[in-house]
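Reading group handout, session on sequence-to-structure problems. Before we discuss, look at one worked example. The prompt was deliberately terse, the way you'd type it at a terminal:

> structure Methyltransferase domain-containing protein

The input record follows.
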Amino acid sequence: MPSSQDFGLGFLAGFLAAVLVGFITSALLSTRQDEYGLGHWKLNIKTPLRSMWMNVGYWRNEQGEPIEDFPEASAALLREVINTAGFAKGDGGKTAILDLGFGCGDQTWDLVQLMHAEKSGFQYVGLSLDQYQVRAAQRRIHRDVTAHTAMGQETLSAVHLFCADAARPETWNRQISESVESLSDQAFSERWLLALDCIYHFKPSRKPVFQLATSKLHANLMLFDLILNDQASAKDIFFARLVSIIMRCPVKTFMTEPEYRQQLEECGFEPESIVMREITDHVFSGLAGFIQRQDAALAEYSISLGGFKLAQRLFEWFDRSRVVKAVIVVARAKQK
Ligand SMILES: C[S@@+](CC[C@H](N)C(=O)[O-])C[C@H]1O[C@@H](n2cnc3c(N)ncnc32)[C@H](O)[C@@H]1O
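And the output record:
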């Protein structure tokens, strides 16, 4: 006859066996349910990706029709900036470009193709803050230049992409400083500083790089930026300052147009040459609408747009309130 101790051990063993069987059964069942979800979208996308643009876009084509596609709108923003500046419409001489915040190289490639089509010699120096983006851009340029039948080593050696804080020239190493300063060579008939949707991030401010453009490079300026509506109420200005903190920009990064013009003049740009072209109508509503459509399209694959949904709300507010406006800025360095 089993003792009470045997009975206790038998009960415990039976209990543990039941827990184990339950655990294995539920693990098997839950594995079965999760085995095929929608996560294999990663296996079905084609790489390299068509593009890695990440600007706010200009959501109209050259005929003034709406653009629905993000890479097309991003490229259109570059097109509007260079058309406003009259860039590459010169004498076919050599062009120098210092491009700040070039992202993953889409704009670099567009500019390389433009220079190639114009048959004008060029030197391009790009500075961007994120090392992963810089590497992606280097791979992209190498891949596209080598695949192009009429481009080769000469084109590759005209493009220099560096990881650097473009807002703080004093932090650049010797190689970067020399590369940037080489753009001041008088052999270049045009010298340009380009900043496509990035300069509002610059800490402590835009000033150091504006001064570098005029004093060392004698370069003209073409950029896309965000400015503060000079009619904004104290409450709206407070919200705009809050937004700049959320965007991890300097608190006072959004300047009014008169403040912006004054800063450009103080940094050595010709006041009469300054163009500030407002393009708000063709920027924020197009981007907010696109994010909404993309969110719905990706939801079919259980992919979430995450933080971009918050950005959508912000762009809708920019569009509705006009507290923060989208502008293209062009200015010519004062003649020495
Ligand atoms: C909105 S994205 C625009 C990227 C690219 N121009 C485009 O149109 O796709 C802003 C870019 O500016 C870069 N950036 C921000 N602050 C920077 C800084 N201080 N120096 C260099 N790049 C900076 C970011 O890393 C990012 O690549």
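Points for discussion. First: The beta strands are 94-100, 122-128, 159-163, 188-196, 220-228, 275-278, 324-331. Second: The longest helix spans residues 4-34.
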